[in-house]
Design a protein that fits this description.
Strand content: 5-15%
Largest sheet: 7 strands, mixed
Number of strands: 17
Structural class: alpha/beta
Helix content: 40-55%
Shape: globular
Distance between the termini: 47 Å
CATH architecture of the largest domain: Alpha-Beta Horseshoe
CATH superfamily of the largest domain: tm_1862 like domain
Mean pLDDT: 93
Number of helices: 21
Radius of gyration: 24 Å
CATH topology of the largest domain: pyruvate-formate lyase- activating enzyme
Low-confidence stretches: 539-556
Amino acid sequence: MGVPVRITGRPQRVLLVGFQDQDNLGLRYLCSAVKAAGHAPDILTFDADPQSLIARARATHPDVIGLSLIFQYMTPKFAEVITAVRAAGITAHITMGGHYPSFDPKPILELIPGLDSIVRFDGEITLALLLNRLSAGAEWRDLAGLASRLDDGSVKSNCLREPVADLDELPWPERADIDYESNPLATASVLGSRGCPWNCSFCSIRPFYELQGGKLRRLRRPEAVVAEMIDLNERRGVPLFLFQDDDFLATGRRARDWGGGIADLLAEEGAGGRIAFKMSCRSDEVHEETLRRLMRGGLTHVYMGVESGDLVGLANMNKMLKPEAHLRAGQILKSLGLSFDFGFMLMDPESTFSSIRNNIAFLDAFVGDGWSIAPFCRMLPYAGTPVRTQLEQEGRLKGTDFQPDYAFRDAKLDLYYDWMIQTFHTRNFTSEGLCHILRYLNFEARLRLGAADDTQARNVATLRFITSRANRLAGDVLRAALDYVERTPLDQLRPDDEYLIALTQWEAMEEARLMADISAYMAATADRRARRDAGGFDRSWTFGSTAREAAGIGAA
């Protein structure tokens, strides 16, 4: 079933509110779906200061306000905004969607009295039907796919709505308000599929789609995907595309043929060279023949869900592969000259000193050469993930509904983690840090779009040297602190330990030197970079919620 038929009553004015990084395809698919159903949508970027939402609501008088909650830890902030909106006298129906609300609607509705409903899981059809009911003044609380607060204050979650089987029945995401034209190298997100068949313990993607029923991964037709890309390229001047698929190459040969079909069509359209794209996949899906086919259609960058370089850690995560698969994938990508970045969890609930040491050694082997910056964080037990269920069953789940937490089995590792998050907060989790800047610059230097100039090889070599130093610095500091914490008795360890403080200070000093070198590089390449500015790509890293760890639990 596609978008519901158009209404006959007064169209509902809908204000959709959320973060706007990566074009926010979730909001934009909702926007196009309710527009196709005959309603009048608008989009607003979420702001922790509620005044922008209040001002827009007073100016446009929406019938419905829909909020997209992406980051679980942001729930209390969304609650503050909704409370302020209600205090300002705004009476619109307020609904919410996203991964976390889909899994756990009850605590959200209990926390936020001003919230009327939650649209669970894939929301295009449910939201359009909700608007139709509201438009007609009809009962809406019985809609499949909806959770709401009843008159007696209790929370009711209805049966889930089956997702749209044919994604090409949905209209393309609404993009009219995005100013692609003024960007010298405009970047657009696109979705070729939804879902993932893998069952990694830290990830909620499979449970999200599994609970709805239907296929674990749904594919759009290659012709439809390419038509959308060509339209954006020719009509809006967009040359760079970010596939936001959970795993572009999941499901083996079927996915390789599908992805290769997209690349073949782009090549047949003559788009190779004028269009470039980024995709995400697992490391064991990286095969040279497949990548060469994708490169002919414009593949320029790969994001890999590496997560761990420790054999036991990978088994605990249910990744179903070995560290050698990561190393082999890295070698293939480097041999093809492709830029790549990756997700990595240095610590998880089962971490030991040995597993962390293995992870540090893996990072040295994987990117010690500086091809890509080494990120690292710890695993967090988000709603809907198998690891959250496991920790809860073991009695180890701590924190709150909105900021779930856990302690390591070895108390020394809790202190090590606290030191790590403080020492590497800026490096790993801020837009001013080495990870963010070097990810962007390394991508930019290897961007496969148009003709390469004679400075490209020199720029790549310079960045590899800087990135290698950054990675080895992090590895040396992580290893030194780990060795110290392991050999020191627990009763002698304390947060203000002089040795650990000195390590943090030394790391900050060395980071400052690296940042000076990066500033010099950026000044020397300013003219070239102005011509090839990669638009929004520096905000496009696939697992953004993981990268924002420091803004949630353990914030420094």
